[in-house]
Amino acid sequence: MVARTRPEPNALVVRFSRDGEQPDEMLARDGQQAWRHAVMLIAKREWLLSGDSLTVRRTDEDGPNAAVVRALPRPQGGGR
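Predicted structure:
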């Protein structure tokens, strides 16, 4: 028996990327579930590193319309 799956038309892909590691992805049916998946993907790490990124995009979307959050390097010297 052959089975084919197709994501829902409004499904979102949440992807956490870190240099040197395989990206971690989760599929969400809506924005609320995407938010939960994003928090879970970040919480799995002991800490965030400069250059880490979290991307949320529709399953049928590629390119500049994807929402991307990147961990930036901490400023050097002085204050918070």
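Summary: The CA atoms of residues 12 and 59 lie 5 Å apart.
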